[in-house]
Amino acid sequence: xxxxxxxEKNMDNDHKQxxxxxxxxxxxxxxxxKDIVRILPFVEKNTYKEGEEIYKLGDAAERILxxxxxxxxxxxxxxxxxxxETGSFGEESIRKDSKYLLNAVAV
Length: 107
Fold this sequence. Notes:
By secondary structure, this protein is α+β, with helices and mostly antiparallel strands. The chain has two domains: 1-45, no CATH class; 46-107, Jelly Rolls (Sandwich), CATH 2.60.120. The chain is built from three helices and six strands. The radius of gyration is 15 Å and the shape is globular. Residues 1-7 have low confidence and may be disordered.
C-alpha cells in the first residue's frame, strides 16, 4: 500500500475534507499531503452564528482560521476592511506574542 494511503487510512471524513481544504489554501500551498496529515491533529472545526464575534482587535493571536463555508468580516472599530469567503485569516498568530489587528465577525 502506498505510504500516503497509510497516513490517511484512519482519518474520518471531516479530517479528510479539512485536509483537502488546507491543501488548496494559499497559506499551506507549499505543504505536502504528509505535512497536512501531520497538521490535522492541531486543527479544530468550529461553527459560528451570524453576528458572532470570533476575535477582537487586540486579543492574543493564538490561531489561524480557515473559512470552510460562509463569510467572515474583518473590520476595524470604525469600518469594514475585508469580507472573506474562502481562505485563511488570523495569520497574526504566526508571530510570537502577537495580537489580532482587526475584529473578526461571522456574517
